[in-house]
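Input sequence (288 aa), recorded before submission:
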Amino acid sequence: MITKSAYDRAIDRCPRKPWWGTLAFAIAIFAAGNVPARADEAFDVNQLRGGQYFTAIKLVPSERAATDNTHPIAITATNLKSAMGSLTVDDGPLGDGAAVFSERELESLAAPLSDALSKANARQDVAFAISGKHGVLGDLSPLAVTTGRVFMTATGLNMIFGSIQERFEGLDVSERMKALQPGKRTRTLDSIWRLRPGTGSMATKRSDWVLFDPQKMDGATQSVARAVSAVPSAVPITTPNTPAPARQDTNPNADIKRRLKLLEELKTEGLITEEEYRTRRRTIIDQI
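Predicted structure, token format:
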């Protein structure tokens, strides 16, 4: 008769987990390293839905390696609007040289951003996310989102972008979370656009980080007028649950023909799906 040692008997009493439990645990640990953003700086994707206009501002902790900011700081909404209005982007939905922010977005963002900077402390940044329509179909374009991180240091007003006119409408939750990430000091987030600094200057070796000299921000007024005029159809200010008013056109029939022709070209080139083509074509025809 074979008897087990005390060690063997102790091992037998230990609960044994199935192999798939160990695998699931390993997968969970791996996935944890790929979370899009920290919970304390990610915007609520359930509140910021793809089919609604929104402007979101949030005080978030500065990243660990960051030096202290010179907060709180008083910058007028007018100066912020002028500086941000001078920014343009290449390789965006409207091609090269398009304004990063529409007039509607500037009006919605400048005042709350100014207020947040006046309340932030030395270890806080201001994160923002704002939606708008920047596609070639104007008001019929899908909603897009622009996000960033703003803070003041001894070198000036810093603005690091996470997304610029990134498609937001029609995405699933994980894709919306990715689109809502603010910029990061530590690295450039994946992007296809190229930012132009306008009245600011680009940070060294960064394509997403703009520096503005507060002493020169008053002189940005002319540039903002030029940048905003580059947007073909600025969307009027709307609340999150209110659809944007339709554009008024002096020649509606000509505009409808132009939109239908453009829609057909986008479908032919494979830039939109058959379902998107039919939905937007019906929307255009309903305006007749």
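Checked by second reader. The two ends are 94 Å apart (CA to CA).
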